[in-house]
Design brief:
heterodimer, A: 387 residues, alpha/beta, 9 strands, disordered N terminus, B: 94 residues, alpha+beta, three-stranded antiparallel sheet, two-stranded antiparallel ribbon, 3 helices, 5 strands, 22% strand
């Protein structure tokens, strides 16, 4: 699956030093079970050792408490959220509470019975992932035979009059197919297309060398997208999320940790971003023991990186810190070993060479999978990596 | 897309891709759409909550003038609706 990781419409960048606002964006990862095995999945590579999933009542309590805090956008994700047979109950309660409900799905399991039941329960929007525009590449990249099924699901989404976001995670192996992907999205009737370049966390981090596109590939794909935008004859909003490794300034990741975003993992761990479990030194609170109010306002995991007191140089004295919040804490940790460092995507970071070296490596000619095989996301591979 | 000029007879409705609701935590009306939210100022909220696809722009204007005990809002309402149509928040039915 894929998910836009930057909440770019909810930002209030002037809010850094004022009291924290509500967790406007609540993402519930209902399960790690997934019929797909995408090599770029952001889920943690050690998910197989995660504890048991929350039960229905836990999720309903999380919804009620978060809504009281002012949460309004709800993402239901995973894994594959349709793997939960209580999804309709969760959606109905969320709707009753006034959430705008986004289902982020591979489409597997979304038959007509369920899509009708979800509509009746109040689901607002469906984001459907594709891995590529062709059956062959879609099925290879997800390590499943799902292309034809996804096309059928897209037709069902239209038939039931949901706004449809078509999400395709881009990387070295499919980024040259952007033109075909956009044609496919147009033909399927998507209202929004998200061309989300891979962000390197979880399985994508593990497979980074095989997934990183070359700079020429990225530039070509962006030019193709811009040309397509100009000539499309109906309203279809196209987002092209530039891979941050190719930038000179970091993304305003999560608008700063603890600013607008709160995610709950299948076992009930609350995180300030979906990748944050990797950050060392934190005991992430669980919704089994703590209220959402405690988690958001009191827990160190949410307060530590809020504001700018944690920053080191060059961020601390940088005038751009109110715009990008120092970038991504997880990326700083993964690349430099210290989550309080500047995101090395920033060219002002003394570690920026780690990013440019990874990009330079991607300029090598592609010699096929033989160079090093992709490791696909699966419980078996997870257990092998973390015995 | 051609857009007809907004007149007193136009019947605006919130576009199907948006949902309008009052958010107590924001103390504001908001427009919700896939993975996003637009926080509205109070006059935008007052106008949009009257865009139900039934009321004409003239009805909406009269209703606002009554509610706020004022007159002469017509041009402001028309200009706002035109902007909202341009942003695709609102569709005009006739």
């Amino acid at each position: 699956m894929g998910c836009r990781t930057v909440v770019n419409t909810l930002a209030d960048p002037t809010r850094m030093s004022s009291p924290p606002g509500p967790p406007l964006w609540l993402l519930l990862e209902l399960t790690y079970r997934c019929p797909l095995h995408c090599a770029f999945c952001y889920n943690p590579t050690d998910f197989a050792r995660s504890g048991p999933e929350l039960d229905t009542d836990d999720w309903l309590r999380v919804l009620r408490e978060a809504r009281e805090l002012g949460a309004v956008q709800l993402g239901l994700s995973g894994g594959e959220p349709l793997a939960r047979d209580d999804l309709e109950i969760i959606v109905a309660e969320a709707h009753r509470l006034g959430f705008y409900i986004n289902l982020i799905t591979s489409g597997v399991g979304l038959n007509e019975t369920r899509i009708a039941a979800l509509k009746a329960a109040g689901l607002d929007h469906i984001q459907l992932s594709f891995q590529d525009s062709s059956r062959q590449m879609n099925d290879f990249l997800s390590s499943t035979r799902t292309f034809d099924l996804k096309c059928k699901v897209a037709a069902l989404i239209k038939h039931y009059d949901y706004p449809m976001v078509l999400n395709v995670v881009l990387h070295r192996l499919n980024i040259d197919h952007v033109e075909e992907i956009l044609h496919m999205a147009d033909k399927l009737g998507a209202e929004y297309v998200e061309l989300a370049n891979t962000q390197y966390y979880g399985w994508a981090w593990h497979n980074r060398a095989q997934l990183m596109p070359s700079r020429a590939q990225v530039e070509r794909a962006e030019a193709v997208t811009n040309r397509f935008r100009e000539r499309i004859g109906r309203p279809m909003q196209i987002y092209f999320v530039v891979p941050d490794y190719f930038e000179r300034r970091p993304k305003p990741c999560m608008n700063g940790l603890g600013s607008v975003f709160l995610t709950v993992t299948p076992d009930g761990t609350a995180l300030p971003c979906h990748a944050a479990r990797m950050l060392p030194g934190f005991e992430f609170p669980t919704v089994r023991e703590k209220s959402m109010a405690h988690i958001w306002f009191e827990s160190v995991a949410f307060t530590h990186f809020r504001g700018d007191a944690w920053m080191k140089e060059p961020c601390r004295s940088c005038p751009e810190k109110t715009r990008d919040f120092g970038g991504c804490r997880c990326q700083a940790y993964l690349l430099t070993g210290d989550a309080a460092n500047a995101d090395p995507v920033c060219e002002l970071s003394p570690h920026h060479h780690l990013v440019t070296e990874a990009v330079a490596l991607a300029d090598r000619p592609y010699v096929g999978e033989a160079e090093k095989p992709l490791v696909f996301r699966s419980p078996a591979n997870s257990a092998t990596l973390f015995p | 897309m051609t857009s007809n000029p907004i007149t007193g007879a136009s019947r605006p409705a919130i576009d199907r891709r948006f949902r309008l609701q009052w958010e107590a935590a924001q103390n504001a009306h908001v427009l919700l759409y896939p993975e996003g939210m637009i926080k509205l100022n109070s006059s935008a909220g007052e106008i949009l909550q009257r865009c139900d696809g039934q009321a004409t722009v003239a009805d909406i204007t009269a209703n606002l003038e009554l509610a706020f005990a004022t007159t002469g809002l017509s041009n402001d309402v028309i200009a706002f609706i035109a902007m909202a149509v341009d942003k695709k928040w609102v569709a005009v039915l006739s």
